[in-house]
Amino acid sequence: MAIVTTKELMGRKVVGGKKLKKIGKVRRFVFHPSEKRVVGLTIKRPDVALMFHRKDLFVSLNGFEIDEEGRLVVSEAPEATDKGACKALGVDWDQCVLWVGMPIMTAKGDFLGYVDEVAFDRETGEISHVKTENGAANDVLLGKFKIPGNYIKGFRRGQGMALSHMGEFGEEEEDAEVERGAILVADRTVELASEGGVAEKAGKATAVVTDKAKKGAGKAKAVAAEKVEKARPVAKRAAEMTGDAVNKGAFAAGKQIGKTKGMFSAFKEEFEKASKGESE
């Protein structure tokens, strides 16, 4: 099992055709509508003559290889890109989801941060784990979580917080209809130890003080308990405050990702031009 992460692949150069002409760079990661797995990537293609915008290209997870230089080499097979890829994958493009930036919540409504990075199997797309972030200020309080794949249930519409919408080219749409959604995780996820947050540090301090208490420092035990109690409400308040400030431009699920349908192009022609050295 070869595990890669969204951050490792983000921004990688993408080439294709017999002469491996440049296509663009990795822009986003597309997830299955109902299953917790990556199905492909969207590629940001350079504008023509720096003026005319070219729409993103969708490449399925099995539609490319990574060469020795770290570039993504896209297959010329019709099932590797765009509509052909969706048909081969058996997915409805309009229903696919972009996880990175999504809020993470439990069924009970606990907010645990946003999806910062996703690790997945290079071959199957199955999710290995997800790392969270809460914004610089709140990361200090809450820390960062690493959520194992077996804790993750998947994306849920109609549950969670109001999310910002993205238009066809990634611009936020001010007049878009408000929808709700979140990445749903098991309730036990709240018990995971955070990395470097105030709560964790308070816990470590408690362990040290408790050890001293056992050796005779009677007051230390009370101090340790007080630290833990103080850390809990601080972390909880931070989560609630952060929950009201979803990252703009993070949501592109359902009908929103459907607005990028126009990105499907005659990719076969692009490859033919590239192989003949005619590509722009």
Description:
The protein is α+β, with helices and mostly antiparallel strands. The chain folds into 2 domains: 3-97 and 258-275, Roll (SH3 type barrels), CATH 2.30.30.240; 103-251, no CATH class. It has helices at 6-9, 82-89, 136-142, 198-214, 218-243, 255-258, 267-275, and strands at residues 3-5, 13-16, 21-31, 38-44, 57-60, 64-66, 72-74, 103-106, 111-121, 127-133, 146-148, 152-163, 179-185. A hairpin with a 6-residue loop joins strand 3 (21-31) and strand 4. The longest helix is centred in the C-terminal third of the chain and has 26 residues, at 218-243. It is elongated and about 65 Å long. The model is unreliable at 166-173, 205-210, 238-256 and 259-266 (pLDDT under 50).
- Low-confidence blocks of residues: 166-173, 205-210, 238-256, 259-266
Task: Give, in order, the helices and strands.
Answer: EHEEEEEEHEEEHEEEHHHH
What number of domains?
Answer: 2
Rg result:
22 Å
**How confident overall, as mean pLDDT?**
75
Give the key terms.
7-stranded mixed beta sheet, 2 domains, 7 helices, elongated, alpha+beta, 280 residues, SH3 type barrels
Topology:
Layout: E1 3-5, H1 6-9, E2 13-16, E3 21-31, E4 38-44, E5 57-60, E6 64-66, E7 72-74, H2 82-89, E8 103-106, E9 111-121, E10 127-133, H3 136-142, E11 146-148, E12 152-163, E13 179-185, H4 198-214, H5 218-243, H6 255-258, H7 267-275
Parallel strand pairs: 2-7, 8-13
Antiparallel strand pairs: 1-9, 2-3, 3-4, 4-5, 6-7, 8-9, 9-10, 10-11, 12-13
What is this entry, summarized?
The chain is α+β, with helices and mostly antiparallel strands and 280 residues long. 27% of the residues lie in helices and 28% in strands.
